[in-house]
Every structure is written in C-alpha cells, then in structure tokens.
Predict the structure.
Amino acid sequence: MSTEIKTAVFDLDGTLIDSLPDLAESGIALLKSYDLHLPTEEAVRGMIGDGAHRLVDRLLIYGGDEKRIDRDEATRRFLEIYEPRATEKTHLFPDTQAMLTTLRERGIACVVCTNKPVKAAQAIIEKLGVASLIDAIGGGDSFATRKPDPDHIRNTMRLIHAEPTRGIMIGDHQNDIMAAMGVPMPSLFASWGYGDRSMSAHATAIAGCIDELPRLIYDLSRPN
C-alpha cells in the first residue's frame, strides 16, 4: 500500500522560481568587485543548488581566484549585492500559483526546503505573491544541516508538525533527491530546472512541467 501524501516539500530555485537572472547578475557584480573573469548566465546555472557559500566559491574559482579571497567575506559581499535585488528579474515558473492552489485545495500542505538563506527565500515568496500558499520555509541557514542531509527536510516539515514519511520532495537537483531518499520519502525531479538530467537518476518520477505535479502526487498517493 502507498502512504497518503499530506505534505509537498519544494525546492525553491529552479523548482518554483526562475532566479537565475538575479543570481547571475549578482555573481557578475561580485566578480567585477574583485576584478576577476566574468561568467555567462549559462555558466552560473550549473553553480546553483548548494547554497550561497558554495555558489560564491564556484564563482570565484570560475573567475580565476586560487583560494586567495576569503570565502566567508566574499559570501557576505555577495548577499549584500543579491538580497536587495533578489526579485528584480526573478519570477515564478508558469503555472506555479495554480499548482500550489490545487494542492492546498486537496488538503496537501506546501513547504519550501531550500539551501538559499531563509531571509532571501522569505522575501522572494512574499514578493512573488505566494506566501499564503506556503506553510513554512526551511532555509539553508535555518538548521544545523541542509540538503542533501535528510534532516533538512525533516526539520522543515516539523515546523508544521508534519510527518516526514507522509511527504514528497520536489526539486531540480541531486541534493533534493538524495535528501528525500534519506528520509525516506518519494521524490519528483523538476526537469524544467537548473539541474542536469543525470541528477534525476534516483527520483521516484520525473515531472515534465509544473502543472503535472498534482496528478503525479495523486498517483503516488494511491494504493498500488
């Protein structure tokens, strides 16, 4: 028998929102401040998914720094650039609001579990008009661990007193899939996001577009 799914756990960047333009422009501004080689937007796409500190490290390596620049200071500088402009070009992927509404109408809670700093995640969710559809946000700095550690999902779900084994993880990165496996819970790979398709290898299923999610979640909730 399948376990009825009561909570949908969403990654943020590359899953609910297209944040690449703002992240890329902020990354370019950071590297300009250090007089380093500048990345293309497409280059930045492959750097997203492991939180701000790892993104900054990858940006600096791409730019030509050989670990001389202090990563903590560079991350602070990046967030000072990024957070005030985090929604200038960032937008919801098509059908996101309708999808979240459908899940809520079916009695499924919706939470965000992201490696992005929680302050930025909260501001984006508010600005894009879907805060009323999101029951909780667990950011990359909300707990002692973050994805791919499964405790990031567990702790995020505990914010609404939800049972982790009755959840499903939806994300575009191998961190999402690995964290879900560790809970354990089923996972859906968001093929429209930033992750390489190879990252979907251990997902329960692959979602081709956002409006497929309610059906896929319903199918995984039904008895076998």
Remarks:
- The mean pLDDT is 96.
- The beta strands are 7-10, 17-18, 91-92, 109-113, 136-138, 167-171, 187-190, 205-207.
- The longest helix spans residues 20-33.
- The radius of gyration is 17 Å.
